[in-house]
Give the backbone structure.
Amino acid sequence: MELTVIIAGLLLAIGGLAALAGLIRCASAADGTDPARRPADPPTGGLPARRGPVVGSGARPGRRARTRIQMSPGRVLALSLAVGLGVIAVASVSLGKLVEDVTHGDGLALIDHPVARFVAAHRTPALTSAMGAVSAVAAPAAMAGIALAAGVLLAIARRSWAPVLELGVTVVGIVGLTVVFKATLGLPRPPAALAAAAADGYGFPSGHAATAAAVCGVAAWLATTRVRSRPARAGMWAVAAMLTVAVGISRVYLGVHWATDVIGGWIFGILWMAIVVGAWAAFGRLHASTNARATRDG
């Protein structure tokens, strides 16, 4: 019961923080300047987006029109790239420091054995079944199917195959990179005596945690770009964060990963998510700008 309360409290705290961060971000960005509001999709058959009022056409320029004048597409692209590069830089430095800790057995790696022993001493049959189910659903193969289904639903809603392609790149990339990273480091999993499930291969980083972070993050980004309600967008990010954390917790609970394996997986997944989202957004903006120039020149 004690461990169940700890896990539930941690999930609620993560979800609340993610929702709060989403609300703050939405509140600090004007409707027309939010770079994630309506990014341009690459040419995959989507319908043209609605355009706002044009200044100089006789319509009185409102707040939305003035905001768009202040934030040109070039500035939006630059802001998106700056944010993306900032996330990539922070995640890369954090991952490098964590790799150093786990290879030397110091720093954050000092929590691994105490956490593993605590979890092994407080397991319950019901919670073990629940964590086993979460872990099974979050297996890389299962996450690939979930990503495909989410991509198809988003493609139908947006009338564009771009979400399927983006989520496909996300899954293939994170699974492949995780396998290579595991083999390169060759770090072992916890001993079988502490495990409540079977697992083979190397431990760091957790493939389940990395795949969940990347897929849930990209799916949330794709879903929220077309949602107008700020609380709804914040709620989607909160759900994505809670699912990602639940997957990582399940791997530590089952004793098949050290805590630092999961933390490394989360960072690795966030890093790949930032690369995919940043590259896709930049490509979409550049494509939209090219089309706009061609239309204007023609």
